[in-house]
Structure formats: structure tokens, C-alpha cells
Amino acid sequence: MSKPHSRPEAGWSAVQTAAVLILCRLAAFFCAEQPYSAAYAKGMFTAAVLTAGLLLPLLIAPQEPLPDALRPLYRGFALLWGSLTLVRLYALLTALHSPYPLLTLFLLIPVLLELQRLPQAAAARAASLLLFVTAAAFLLLPVSGIRTAKPVFLHEPDSAGAAFLREFQQCGELGLLPLLRSRENKPLAASRGAAAWLTVRSAVLPLTVIFGTMQNGRLLHLTGNPFFLLLARTPLSDALRTDGIWMLLAVGSTVLCLTAFLHFAADGTGTRLRYGIFLPFCSFALLFAAVPESASGLGAAAVLLGIGIPWMLRLRSLCAGLRGRPLFPHRRHEG
Amino acid sequence: MKNAVLSALFGCTLLTGCTDIRNRLSPDVLAVDAGSRTQFTAHISQDKELISAEADSPLLMPDALQTASGAEISAGHLSLLAVSGSPCAFLRDYVSRQWLAPTGHVLFVPDSACAALSGGGLPTAEQIAAAVSSGQVPCRTADAVLGDLLGGSGITALHCFDGKAFTLALADQNGVLGMLSADACRGLALLGKRWDCFSFAQTTGICTVTAVRARIYTGQSGKALTFTLSADITCRTGQPAEAEAILRQMLEAALTEPAQNAGADLLFLHEAALRDGIREEAGSAEIRQQQLRNAGYRTEIRLKTDSIW
Amino acid sequence: METAFRTLSGRLTDDLAAVRAASGGSADLLSAEITIGGVPCCLLTCEGMVAGGLLAELVTEPLNQLGFSPSDSAALLEMLRTRRLFSADSTEVREIPALLKLLYAGFAVLLIDGAGTAPAFGVQGYASRSIAEPSGEQNIYGAKEGFTEPVRTNMSLLRRRMKSPLLTFELLSAGTVSQTDLCLCWLRDRVPAGLLGEIRETLSALPLETVLSAGYIRPFLEHSDSALVHSVGTTERPDVLCAKLLEGRVGILIDGTPFALVIPQLLCETFQTLDDYNYPPAYATLLRWLKYAAGLTALLLPACYLAVSLHHPALMHETLLRLLTESEQNAPFSLTAELLGILFVYEILREAGLRLPKATGSAVGIIGGLLIGDAAVQSGLISTPVLTVAALSATSGFVIPEHHAALTVLRPLFILAASAAGIAGIAVLGTALLCHVCATEAFGFPVSAPAAPLLPRRLSDVLARIGFRRLSQQNFRVSETRLQPDDTIIYNNNTR
Predict the structure, then answer these.
(1) How many other β-carbons are positioned within 10 Å of the β-carbon of residue A315?
(2) pLDDT at B277 over 60
(3) Which of A138, A148, A209, C391 is the most buried (most CB within 10 A)?
(4) What kind of fold does domain B24-179 have according to CATH?
(5) Closest CA of chain B from A81, distance in Å
(6) Distance between terminal CA atoms of chain B?
């Protein structure tokens, strides 16, 4: 039934922007299979701080308008990252020994189609609700594991440099930031949301990795999902295991992340294209599943799109502004 | 699109069929005799029955038991894995495949684990937990055993029951290397801090340890390392000197027996060395074991008696 | 005969014939011809719609004792207009369709020969149900009055509770055939700008022939036929509606139904009752969280139980798993079939209990208890844990009756998802449901507010029930939750 009063879609608030960005990062975090170590946390923290250092000057300044010619680039990136996330979700389901992972994806595709029909704001609101629940769960995490944590495990040898580079491979939402900030009606909210996201990346995730390191310890070479290994080692009690709740949160975050990326991939298009992107979406997912190396450039693409291009636009506008001004403004022009 | 979701739901259900739990068995204890042909004996929690099976590899456990019992095997509730032969050869796969939880117990049985389980001579997971909480042995769950194997010096310690008491068996990927003494076991338990009550007998009376704070410091002179265990122990005893002597004996055994005698890093000596700034020598597990055997060990204990009132 | 634009001619005989023809010769149209001061007149009423005593006291007796002879019909009309007050609710009518509408609304209409206008007097006296405690929405501390079918009675119930001049009623009609009276009510100083206009526009465009209950109009106001969560609420209680009006909402009273519609409704309010504001805050907060937990239990418990039992047994306690497996040994059906079957039977029993006459209603409980609670379990058709889970889920659903329909539809879907894909299936479907709920809005008010979009100050009455001292200072207005194109949040109409 059509709504007789069409209202322009409300922009995302700061909380919603932060929620979408954070959940996208959390989805990658839950799906990651790299074992935890202090060096991992260090690399993650360094990457996050560097990203924050590069982004903050852009966030403080007004957003440069994103040229229309560049928008397809961002939309294409969103589609590719969404495909990669789908592959990661499948890997997560397999790692968790979920029954019939392929069938879960078979159920997921129509759900994603249905979520495409809903306004973007719905996914953003859902993300903010899910974020609150996830935050509460994260607060409980140390409670269950404080007794078995061993600080000596922080000295397990690992490569911080590899972790630094890996962080950018998992941070696809960085590439969406200019799109978010270019929304006309709520640019300030996007900046504030991005600041919250940077804080979580810099603080919460490295702390979680450190906590996980103190728990998982020497199981650095055990294959599998390290986050769920951490959960398996820190049950609240014999009767109550929280793995199920975390599975719900992990899969839910990933589904919302997929929804957000697909929305951005189809941003501003009509219904047919909105549904039509599912074919390339699934095709790229199959490609990334078959040839994992084909997705290796996406991390660099995220950095380029999220940091490189905005800086180039900013510098260009600064130069344009300087060109219009006299070189020595205090000297009078003698005619 | 809602119709598409509903169709997918119904389609999923039709495709998966109706999974049945009636024909499912959950073993809580599994005995594995690893050898040229692997024997399995599983104790089923539902009906307290035992199922025996045989296969070419320990990794074929679910199939073998399924064939023997005619029911689907769900190993998620395995609380005790009793192994004879090479206990560590397949432990990693069992944990990776979630057949054994990281918090599950692993027990080495010198002779035949299957025979011990069938004959009723195998201790239960609760008995092992009781031994841990009374400080007889440290807590050596699957994650700890695996961690030492994969990330330590390649030698681990796992619980062993000799029919009367619990002890620890040192093992690597190939097999068991030896047993630790009772003092070493108690010392490791004391340092592990998973006990609820740690008491031992003195000439007259009982000494009860109430608190332990221990730290291992690493020193280096040349290529030789020195590990110093510094412990502050609070206990209730009528004879502090004797208690200190006994505790020192336990701690020295815990420090030296696995490391100096066998090259096993059960006290995270490698991590302590890294923490204290000792640069890691890149090398295999054998090199680490050699380093530990060649290192020096010292124990410093400061005992404080805890008055009851 | 088409009488849409037929007006009174002034000739009594013709007008009477036209009225009779327009009503199709309906047997409930009563006419009494009378001569007033020499002027022929005819008093028209509708059988059963007027109060006989009131008609006699207010209309016929004064007409009979008029005491003067008007010169003509115009003079009579003038006299009736200005020198006599027959009823507080009087009007005049020229068109025959409007005349008939007034007759069917309980007015008495006086046709005057020679006058093209007929005065109408409100003397309604149709039989209606007395004010009683609402069947649902029962409270311990609240009033025991609920809305009834006549819209004017409901208006009076509101007015008694809200004597403010800011309370405004507006009568509309809906239904091309039934011409059902609707009454919009709002408080002038706090209703969001534009909301009333949008509601009026929606109501005026209703493509319905009749409006027999609130459910007829609700989908049009929600702009969705298939909403799982309602963005337009209903209430049977005038005190609840008053509380909603105070927050700036708009109420719609519908003639013929004891339910009022409330626009907008937020999801969190469906977990609140008026009694919450009578209990101590700590207890009320506990009850609120109990309801949230009950909602989740009602929706997800069977699915989670199924997912864990079938696909993730390691998550279940060993003893519980053993009990479950032992009890399932003799059951002939799979766990999925048992759960779906027992929920299906529960719905049958529930529906039967609603439809059966009260005298035999208790038989449903006995049959249900004996058949399902005893015989089915003892015979091994279903297992006790499944029965317990289903009963707990069903009982939890009773705590939030507003969501019963959605729960009934969603529970089996979650069960199917859990059966097919375990916890991941529940997560996928749950995320879709969450997005769907967050997308639901009415007239720009998202139901997920104040949680999403986040209004931190307003969460105090969602996460807990704060004390009245603080509550009275906050003065929640629903306009704060309306979607704004920019980032402003409006508290109490002050933009920040």
C-alpha cells in the first residue's frame, strides 16, 4: 500500500552512523581467523590510530562534495566488499560447525532482497539496537574470563606488522565513509559517528584481542575462530554457555553489514537495479570463495577510497582556495 | 519479497528434512587406544552404556562409533578423553573439530584406556576436577595441553592416573616421555592457582595455603638463561619452617623437573623470558627444549603465616 | 432513486414521499403528522434510535403547547429557531441524504410545509451497552471504565477526565455506505504540526463501504496491510487514551466499537500498562523487564530450544540433554513436528475458547488439559519438555497481548529457520524482523523510537520506570520521536 505522504528519507543520526560502521567492523572481527596475540592488538591499535590521525582533519573540516563521477567507484567497492563479507560469513558458519551453511546462505539471499526493499534508515536503526546488545555482551565478557586470564601470554611472539596490514584488510567500512559524509541532510552526524567508530577500533577491539590473548594463550597455532575459542574457554558457568548468544550477535552483525553494503551499492538507483545487483554480488562472492587472492586488493581500495580520495579532494579545494588569494595579502597592490 | 523469504524457509526445511535427535548418542567419556589400529570405547551419558569400536585412525571416531551403535554420535559433551599410546597425536584435530571442548579433560592411561573404561577403573571428570581443586595436580584441560604442544616447547603434561593417585605425564607428539613426581605435581598445582584448598601434612598438623603470588624472572649471562621463581606464600601452619621447606621442595620440583629434566615449558618460561627482554632465538621446539635443559633455576620463597583471627 | 443532491422542496407531501422513497420504504422510519399553529408539519424519527421520553419531553410536548399561531411556515421556523430551545443538539437540514443521516443518528426531524429547511433535534436514546470494565487491558489500580460503542459516550468519558479547553473533538464520517461516525481527539497545544492534516486526508480517502471495527481503518493509517508491529495502537481505556493525548498523540474514536485508535504508537509502549505507574518504581521496572523477557521468550524459546537440541547440543547442559533425549525416545514424531503440532493445537484451543459460548467455554480448558496435558504426554505422542517449552512460550505471549498475532505468525517461522539452519537461521530471520520493525512507522513516527532513533533522555521510561518526581519534569512529547530531516532533536518543542 503506497504512502500518500511521501517524506524525504531522514538521514542517519550520529548513533546510527556509528552503529553501522562499528557493526561492519565487528562483523569482520567475528569472522576473522587470525589467532589473538599482543602483537595483533598492537598492530590493530597502530592501524586504528593512524587511520584516526589521517581522518580526523577531514572529519573536522566540512565535507568536500563527492564528484558524481566517483560515486560508481564507491558503489562498486561496496558491492565487492559485500561479496567478500558473504564469503567470510560462510567461513564463519563453517568454523562454528553450523548445520547446512549453504542452506543458511540460501535463506539469507531472499532475506537480503527483502531488506533491500526497506529504507536505509531501517537497517541503521536496527544496527543501533544490535550495537547496544553487543556492547552489553562485550561488557560481560571480562566477567566470565577474569579468573583464567594470564598476563604472561601477552608475550607470545607474533608479528605486529602483519597485524597492522591485516587491519586494513578487515576495515571495508572505511571505503564507505565519504559516501556517508556526503549525505546532504546529516553531514555532522556522519562525522560524529565516524569518530565513535574510530574510538571503538582504537580501544575496544584491541582490548578484546588482549583479553583474548590472555585467555587463548599459546593456542596461536590452533586453526579455527579465535573469538569463539575464547568463548569456549570462558563459559559463565557449566550450565550457562554464552556461545549461542554470541553466534546470534555475530551472524546478526554480519547480515546487517551485508545489508548496509548492498544499500550503498544500490544507492540512488531504482528498484530493478536494487535487485539486479544481487547477480554480480553472488558472482563475486563465488569468485572470492574460489580464488581468495582475488580479494587481496580490497583493503588497499578501502584506504584509497576512504582516505586517499577525500584527502585529494581536500587538497584540491585548498589549492583552489589559495590560488584565488593574493600571495602576500598584507601588501597593497600598486596600480 | 516476503514470499521469497517464506518460500526459502519452507524450501530449507524440506531440503534438510527433519533432523532426529532420538537416534543420537552423546558420549561423555571416550577412551582411545591409539596404535596401528585405533580402539575406541565410549561411555554414553544417556543410558550409561559402553560402546566399543575400531578404526584405522583416531579421526574416524564418529563413524566408527556410529557403525558400532547404529546411532548418530554427538561428541559435544565429551568431558573426558582418556588416551593411551600417543596421547597428543590427534588432540589438535579433536579440539579443532569441536569433539572435545577446550575445557575438557585429557587423561593418559599407561596401559589400555579402553580396558580401564570397560573395567570401571577410569576416574571420572569430576574426580579429576576434585583432584585439581584439592591441589593434587594442576588443571590440565585440553587447551592447556594443546597450548604447550603447539606454542610451548612441544612437550606437554597431561593428567595420568596410576590406579591410586593422580600424577602428570610428560608427552610430545610422538608419545609419553615420563612421569612427574608428586612434589612436582603439587608444585605445579600450587602455581596454577586453580585449587580451592591446598593443604599438606606436616610432622604435626596440617599446613593450609591461603594465598600465593608467584612470578618467574629471567636472567641471562652469555647464552645461558637463569629462571628465578619468586613466590610469596601465605599459609596457616603451626610450623612455618617445616612448611617452607616442604613448599620449597614442591616449587623446586615444579620448576626443574619438567624444564631441566625434560625441556618442557609448563610454567611459561619462554613468555617470561620475552617479557624480561631476552631476545628470542628463532628455532624449533628442540632448540627451545635444549635451552630449558641448559638453563639455571632458582627458587625464592617468602612465607607468611596467616593468623586465623 | 438517486437522492444525492435532492433537497427539500417545501411541499410537505412531496418531501415526505421523497424521504420515504430515499429510505426505500424502510419499516423503521416513523412519521407523525401534526399541525402546528395551522401549519402542517410531520415529525420524522427512526425506530429505536430516539428516546421516547426525551422526545416527548423535549419536542412533542413543547410543540403541542406552542401557545401562538404563526402566520406562515417561515414564521414558525423563525420561532422554532430563536424562541424555543428544544434540544442542546439542534441543527437544520436541507438535503434529504443529510436528513436521513440525522434520522439514523437518533435525531428527530420536523418537516414543515412551506419551508425548505427542516429543524432536527438530538434526542438520541438507542440501546447501548453500559460502561463496564474493559475485557482486555485489565488493571488492578486503574479505573474500571472502558469505552463503549456509542462515540458520544466515549467522548464524554474523555471529557470527564480531561476538563481542559485544549481537548478538541472533531467528528468525521467514514464508510461510503455506513457513514460511520469517527471522532478525532487531540490536545491543541501539543499535537505535532501537520499530523492532523495527514490523518484527515487519510481518513477522507478511505475506500471502505463500512467501518465496523478499528481493524478496518488501522491498515490505512499504518499504510501497510502486512505490518507485524502496529504503528497505530488501540486502547479500550479512556484513562490510557487521555495519557496518550497528553503526550501529543491523536485519538480516533469509532462509533460502534469500544476501541479507540491512537496515533502514533511506539513499540515500547506495548510493554507498558497503566498499572506500571501505580506500582513503586523498582517493582514496575522489574515488571517491565519481565515483559521484555517474556516477549523474547514467546518468540524465540521454541526456536532456540529446537536449534540447540538438534544442531548445537554442546550448548545444552548435559543433564538437560539427557532428559530431553530420554523423553524423546518414545515420541513418534520429530522435534520440529512436535513443536509445530503442539503450537497448532494450542492455537486451536485458544480460538475455540474465544468462540465458544461462556457456558461451555470451560469445557475447552478441561479437554485441552486432559487431552494434551495428560493423555498425549502419557501416551508418548509428545514429550514433556516440548510441552513445557510450548506452554512457556504461549504463556509468555499472554503477557503482551498486543503482539499475539505477530507472535503466532512468527513463532513457526523461527522454528522452521532453527530446524533448517540452527542458531544461524534464527539470527538471519531475527535480523530481518529487527529491520522490519525498525522500518515500521506511521506519519513519520518510527515505532522503534526512542531506542532507535536514539533519544537518551527518553530511555528512562523505557529501560525502567522512573519515579513520578522525575517523570513529571520530563514531559514526554511524541513529537520528539518524529523523524527530522536534520539532526535536531526537539524536546518539549524547544529545538536543541
Answers:
(1) 11
(2) yes
(3) A209
(4) Nucleotidyltransferase; domain 5 (3.30.420)
(5) 24
(6) 72
Give the per-residue pLDDT at C428. 95
C417 vs A contacts (CB less than 8 Å): 107
In chain A, where are the structural domains located? 14-315
Rounded to two decimals, the pTM is: 0.87
Identify the pLDDT of residue C59. 82
Q: Please answer yes or no on whether B9 and C421 come within 8 Å at the CB atom.
A: no
C5 within a domain of the structure (yes/no): no
Q: Which pLDDT score, from 0 to 100, does residue B18 have?
A: 59
Residue A223, chain B, CB below 8 Å: the answer is: yes
Q: Which of C208, C235, C265 is the last residue of a domain?
A: C265
| Structural domain boundaries in chain B | 24-179, 183-309
In the CATH hierarchy, which fold is given to the domain comprising B183-309? GMP Synthetase; Chain A, domain 3 (3.30.300)
**What is the pLDDT at residue C455?**
84
Cβ contact B13–C325 (<8 Å): no
Give C318's contacts in chain B (Cβ within 8 Å): 26, 28, 45, 77, 79
Contact A239 C317 (CB under 8 A): yes
Does some domain include residue C260? yes
Q: Which residues of chain C have pLDDT under 50?
A: 1-5, 486-496
What average pLDDT does this structure show over B231-251? 92
**Does any CB of chain B come closer than 8 Å to the CB of residue A229?**
yes
- Predicted local confidence at residue C488, as pLDDT: 40
**Residue C60, pLDDT score:** 81
pLDDT tens for each residue of B139-185: 999 989 999 988 888 899 999 988 788 999 999 888 889 999 999 99
C-alpha B246 chain-centroid distance:
24
Look up the CATH number of domain A14-315. 1.20.1740.10
A240 pLDDT higher than 70: no
| Residues on chain C touching B95 (C-beta within 8 angstroms) | none
B148 touches chain A (CB under 8 A): yes
